[in-house]
Design brief:
single chain; 180 residues; alpha/beta; Rossmann fold; 5-stranded parallel sheet; 7 helices; 14% strand; disordered N terminus; binds adenosine-5'-triphosphate; binds magnesium ion
Length: 180
């Protein structure tokens, strides 16, 4: 008989653009696959292209986008798969919705000062947002609601990606989602 720890769960990364969600998610994906676990990454950008190419960035559209991700994650999780989500998911209430529908849910806040994110500007979008060319850009012209009680907070401006990934694995073991 296999115990609870064999079951799926959602590992949900939230944080500002360029905070490090995708980078850490991909490291964890590889680590968990190496352990022989079934994993899928639902990255905000990719899911948007596939499921919601017509959606914009108003609050309603962002919420719809996140609810779609939560739905797919729920299907994966209930089939024993680890669903890693990397999406800005800026609204507290919508993340709570995802937690409620998925059940086995680990929220990881990738905390990084907006100044550092602006400097990284992986996609060049902060630059455009700061020039006023993008309306509703999270952190600049749209709100980001910090998690109040996430399972884990990562500080990506003072940890390496590998250190952050290590801390995620350690926390998953503590929470009983992974074996040591
Ligand atoms: N501890 C860390 N964790 C993650 N990324 C880090 C860390 N330290 C530095 N970085 C760097 O920060 C950048 C984060 O970019 P990444 O694409 O992962 O962000 P993101 O949160 O997925 O952004 P977006 O919301 O725009 O998709 C990368 O260039 C990465 O190398
Ligand atoms: Mg990303």
């Amino acid at each position: 008989m296999e115990g609870m720890r064999e079951h799926g769960f959602a590992l949900w990364f939230t944080g500002l653009p360029s905070s490090g969600k995708t980078t850490i998610a991909r490291l964890i994906e590889h680590e968990l696959r190496a352990r022989g676990l079934k994993v899928e990454v639902l990255d905000g950008d990719e899911v948007r292209q596939q499921l919601s190419p017509q959606l914009g960035f108003s609050k309603e559209e962002r919420d719809m986008h996140i609810r779609r991700i939560a739905y797919v994650a729920k299907l994966l999780v209930r089939n024993g798969i680890i669903a890693i989500v990397a999406a800005i998911s800026p609204y507290r209430e919508t993340r709570q919705y995802a937690r409620d529908v998925i059940g086995r849910f680990v929220e990881v806040y990738v905390n990084c000062p907006v100044e550092v994110c602006i400097e990284r500007d992986v996609k060049g979008l902060y630059k455009q947002a700061l020039r006023g060319e993008i309306a509703n850009f999270t952190g600049i012209s749209d709100p980001y609601e910090e998690p109040l009680a996430p399972e884990l907070v990562l500080y990506s401006h003072r940890e390496t990606p590998a250190e952050s990934a290590r801390r995620v694995i350690t926390r998953l073991i503590e929470l009983g989602y992974l074996r040591a």
